[in-house]
Design goal:
CATH topology of the largest domain: TIM Barrel
CATH architecture of the largest domain: Alpha-Beta Barrel
Structural class: alpha/beta
Number of strands: 17
Radius of gyration: 21 Å
Length: 458
């Protein structure tokens, strides 16, 4: 926790990890040919130790070969890029986002979804799972992505999640509210028919004087109906007791960490018995509430991804005053600390866990928060190797996405090239040199600017 309290902006200056990295010697040819990357350190996303002086060949968007640089055979006509010791890993996967809701559900569209997916890719997040606020536009984008490579993050979606009518109040605009178990099952069926990748339910309201819980008869109906449709069920949770009930009902994973009490051995044992995982701890979500003044407003890695007025608002006295006026403000640090401790308990007990941020809602910024989440996971007590594995191979495994998340022959060429190893310092995940999606080079956050003239980002 001490490292976390230093603040992202201060650590950035101390470590020099936010200076714009140098570009690689050229973009991948993607669909037009074959590209060889060589002389780099490889982290393959499986949790294995990194390999020095590696190489890979990618052709038509797929990794054709990976191994030692000394053994690579360069295909005729291939473009060769010597990375000079840089670090190559799978693109990050954020397992908990909310696409295109920052301007309200009424403005949700294919264009707004695609714009955010391009921003995620610029930050090295090459796939996202959008959890419960997606309208039909998300399915349209996903369908188009399957037909052609588009240079943006891949989208997986829960469609619209199930909310108890009379319970969770934070998503008043969502139409997916149910009063009975029968209505809840019908809502699950409607999203399954659209092709949802998972089913999402909101269990509780959090921080209420009287918790407004989804009735257990309804949560059980959602979970059992999801399983009947061959889909996993994930849940928004806050309270330990209601989370334990969901474990016993067969929930597949939590979309947040339990935050009111520590998890005891009995709870952990139940998670193991029912194969319940921790899809996302969303530590960065909790941290975003714990600060009266967010510590990253002046970090160029952050502000290149937002409009100037957003940065100005975050730095304003009014923002700080509003944060301190929150009646629950004094609780947020403790909530964050409990979430961090619970994640480490699960990790040590062998509970499967991923990396997710809850980005897109409130002051939770797409792309940037994935890197803050990694930092907080390490601050909590995980190793950089564990955090990065959660954000790559582990998240892909939960999604059943056998073609992404790890680097191996036959996998999609979704790659993140970094100047330095994040296994040595997790903040090196921000030193992005290049991003590839399906073998196509996409603009990184250091090469683009959201809502600004380029000079404003120098």
């Amino acid at each position: 926790m001490n490292k976390h309290l230093i603040g992202a902006a201060v650590a950035c200056a101390m470590l020099g990890a936010c200076a714009a990295p140098t570009a690689v010697s050229g973009p991948a040819q993607g669909d037009s040919g074959t590209t060889v990357l060589r002389h780099f350190t490889l982290f393959d996303g499986t949790g294995a130790a990194p390999r020095q002086d590696a190489a890979l060949v990618m052709s038509q968007g797929v990794i054709a070969w990976v191994g030692a640089a000394s053994a690579v055979k360069v295909p005729s006509g291939a473009k060769v890029i010597d990375l000079g010791g840089k670090f190559v890993m799978p693109g990050l996967i954020d397992s908990h986002v909310h696409l295109a809701v920052d301007k309200g559900l009424a403005n949700y569209s294919v264009n707004s979804v695609e714009a955010q997916l391009k921003l995620y890719a610029a930050y090295g997040v090459t796939a996202v799972l959008s959890l419960g606020t997606d309208q039909d536009a998300a399915f349209e984008v996903r369908r188009a992505q399957r037909e052609h490579r588009d240079g943006m993050a891949r989208v997986y979606t829960a469609g619209l999640g199930v909310v108890y009518d009379g319970g969770y109040g934070g998503l008043a605009g969502l139409p997916q509210r149910a009063k009975t178990p029968e209505e809840a099952r019908a809502l699950v069926d409607s999203q399954a028919a659209k092709g949802a990748n998972v089913i999402k339910l909101w269990m509780d309201d959090g921080f209420g004087d009287i918790p407004k819980l989804m009735p257990y008869s309804m949560s059980s109906a959602v979970i059992s109906e999801a399983h009947a449709k061959g889909l996993k069920a994930v849940a928004h949770v806050y309270y330990r007791d209601s989370a334990r009930e969901l474990v016993d009902e067969g929930l597949d994973a939590f979309a947040h960490e339990v935050r009111d009490f520590p998890l005891d051995d009995t709870f952990i044992a139940a998670m193991k018995q029912h194969h319940t995982g921790q899809l996302a701890a969303t530590l960065s979500r909790e941290a975003s509430f714990a600060y009266p003044k967010l510590p990253f407003a002046d970090d160029p890695f952050f502000y290149r991804g937002v409009a100037p007025e957003v940065q100005a608002r975050l730095k304003s006295p009014a923002f700080e005053e509003k944060a301190k006026a929150d009646p629950h403000f004094g609780m947020y640090y403790g909530v964050l600390h409990t979430a961090m401790e619970n994640l480490v308990r699960e990790s040590k007990a062998g509970i499967p866990y991923g990396m997710g941020t809850d980005s897109g809602l409130g002051q939770r910024f797409p792309g940037y928060f994935a890197h803050w989440e990694l930092e907080l996971m390490v601050d909590a007590g995980l190793t950089p190797l564990e955090a990065l594995t959660a954000a790559t191979g582990s998240n892909a495994r939960f999604l059943g996405a056998t073609d992404i998340g790890t680097i191996a022959a036959g996998k999609e060429a979704d790659l993140l090239v970094l100047e330095k190893s994040p296994l040595e310092n997790i903040r090196n995940s921000r030193m992005i040199s290049q991003v590839y999606v399906a073998g196509l080079s996409v603009p990184t956050i250091w090469q683009t600017c959201v809502g600004r003239k380029s000079s404003a980002c120098d």
